[in-house]
Amino acid sequence: MRLFGKRLVLILAFFFGLTPLFFIFGDALSTAYGADGSEARPVWDEGISYLLAMLKSRDASFDVQKVSGLLDFAISEKGGDASLNPGQRENATGAYFFVDVKEPLSKVIKYSYNPRIPAYLTLPSVVRLCGWQVKPTGPVSNLWKKVGNVNDPLMLRGVEYEEITPDLTTGAYYRYDMDRLMILLKYRGKDFFISVTRQKNPSNVGKKGAIIGPDTDWNYFYSGQQGLNTTGLGWVSSYMYDAFSVSILFEPGASKNRARLVTFKWLRAGWNGLNMVRRENILEGCKRFALGFKKVLESPRLPQVERLIDMYARVKGLSDQDLTARLQPISTELQRLCRTDPILSRKDFKDIIESGKYLDSMSREEREGLLMTEYMKLAIGKPSYLNKAAFDYVPTFSLHADHTGKQTHHQ
Q: Which domains does the chain possess?
């Protein structure tokens, strides 16, 4: 927790819905006014309301005109104004942010919204685990294949679960379920991909975790113990009560090698039913989200999606014993670090690590996620506690594609 005056504010560095984003600074964008001097409804607001209602209503038809103001805003100069403050909505704190990714729209969708690979592979700094409780249903399963060839809007709906990485300040991590609506449509000659999410229920109670070394190394510790990793506040039972977002992906210029993501996000979180989130708290997580997302997607060593699908299937096919053995160097490194690291050397964390049962305490899914995240780190050239030996004897394994696009195999 961070103390602002006499008020404790929960710093949540993750923001909901698999939307990788960037910093936002400055004052709020001025509200438009009507001819009589009264406040006019922001041009983007009707679209936000319509999309959130669509997420709940599950209407099979989609009215593009209802989101025309929102899409016009996104592609206008105001859409690139990082100072916009959307304000509170349903007692949740709001923020607006955007990021440019130097990759085509179809590629960003293929990697980030692909039901066959876990989204944490493109969001390693903010998402520990994720998956589909209810797999996406709709007219097509691969929306990225329709980019450049969409006439009527295409929609997919599903229910996901997510568990986030430890918060930058409190060290807390949370798990929750959320509804997701994905739409691909054409408007004013451009393709737009819209993702709408909303948390279904309050998250589980926050648990104590830790960031190991620089956050940009994507190394984290998960204790499984309830509370906050902050002196004097370990007792706090914190929750993410509600979170909802609308994100829009499109190519802002004539070039097909750059995609822009703009997101409206609202979050209500804290304890004892109180919302402790400030706009600045959400924006603090924007930088973290964007840096990891861009690092993965813009890497020249990023494996082909088909390789990630294949590797994920093979990791899931490992025996429990084999899976844990491949992760053993991480346990060994934690045992070394807990002797000197100011956070890992805390008694409650150190006891878990020195018992030698840290990996055994993880669920099967948690160990699979850890191995896949380390695979991605090695693939794009980031430091890892593992090396290529951890992936030996996994047939058709490849750490990265070479500059020709052909796969480099390791048997």
A: 2-298 (3.30.530.20), 314-410 (no CATH)
